[in-house]
Specification:
The protein is mainly alpha-helical. Helices cover 78% and strands 0% of the residues.
Length: 299
């Protein structure tokens, strides 16, 4: 098979397959598309996390991590591949949607970048882009499984992790339910981050060397910064253009993103202060050892 044929086949399965083109977000046809399912699943996720943590505290008093074998590594590999597939799918599908609506965008004075930030009013959750948005929504549940790995291996319950995963599930549901603007860039940024971060986690899980800096945290900081810039862009386009689809859901989404950003920055600052304190203690210890060595030499 030639490279051209492979490219055409890949493009077909990423953007031109009938299941992708004819996709429609519907409460009766799409699994997990009802409000009752959303709230029940998030509630069950939180309760199961708490029950697992409390059960381990009651039954296993020692704080040693429980071995999970290759399960975390396989989960990281699966999440990396799924995220990369969604990234490629929504990227190619967005390009196809922009090409197919070129006449409409010219009439409405909308550029491709503006379309990425701001869906036209009346946009319905159907077609290529929303198919990949739906897969992204489903992948949030697989992503949430990492919470249980953290509880089992690190023997601690992270409020930020539970809050973050719950909000991500909720926001991805809103993107579909209200055909919310900004979701294309949001999915592109997040899936790119997860494909890299989970690939790195798989890399280290199989025993390969780690980075000499906090790789995962720095990647998250970069994506949060891009996310913030894009949110400002959506607001500007909305005010200039006169309206973006799903703007009320976007406002609520922005509030949730601000809460995540605040919690993450709080964690980031504490981590750096802890590292700085640790480095200072190491420096003081080395200086003390050096002074002791000098005194011994003098005597």
């Amino acid at each position: 098979m030639t490279i051209t044929a492979m490219t055409q086949t890949l493009t077909y399965y990423l953007t031109d397959h009938p299941s992708i083109i004819t996709f429609r977000w519907s409460h009766s046809q799409s699994w997990g598309s009802t409000w009752s399912f959303l709230f029940t699943s998030i509630f069950a996720y939180i309760i199961l996390s708490l029950l697992l943590h409390v059960t381990l505290l009651l039954l296993i008093r020692h704080r040693r991590p429980l071995p999970l074998g290759p399960l975390p590594a396989l989960h990281s590999l699966a999440m990396s591949l799924i995220s990369a597939t969604i990234f490629a799918g929504i990227l190619v599908s967005s390009a196809a949607e922009i090409r197919h609506t070129k006449r409409l965008t010219r009439r409405s004075n909308t550029t491709p970048f503006t379309w990425l930030l701001c869906f036209p009013l009346g946009t319905r959750p159907s077609g290529r882009v929303f198919f990949w948005s739906y897969l992204y929504y489903l992948s949030r549940f697989l992503h949430a499984l990492r919470t249980y790995f953290t509880i089992l291996t690190r023997r601690k319950l992270s409020f930020f992790q539970i809050f973050n995963n719950s909000i991500l599930i909720f926001m991805s549901f809103l993107w579909l339910e209200f055909s919310q603007s900004f979701q294309v860039l949001g999915i592109l940024l997040t899936t790119f981050l997860y494909s890299v971060v989970y690939g790195y986690r798989f890399w280290t899980a199989i025993g390969l060397p780690r980075a000499c800096f906090p790789f995962v945290v720095n990647c998250q900081v970069g994506v949060l910064g891009c996310n913030l810039i894009c949110h400002v862009g959506v607001l500007m386009v909305h005010l200039i253009k006169g309206g973006c689809n799903g703007i009320r859901a976007w406002v609520f989404n922005s509030v949730l993103n601000a809460a995540i950003l605040f919690l993450f920055l709080n964690f980031y600052v504490k981590m750096h202060l802890k590292k700085k304190r640790s480095d200072n203690l190491k420096t003081m210890k080395k200086e003390s050892e050096l002074l002791d060595a000098v005194k011994e030499k003098d005597t």
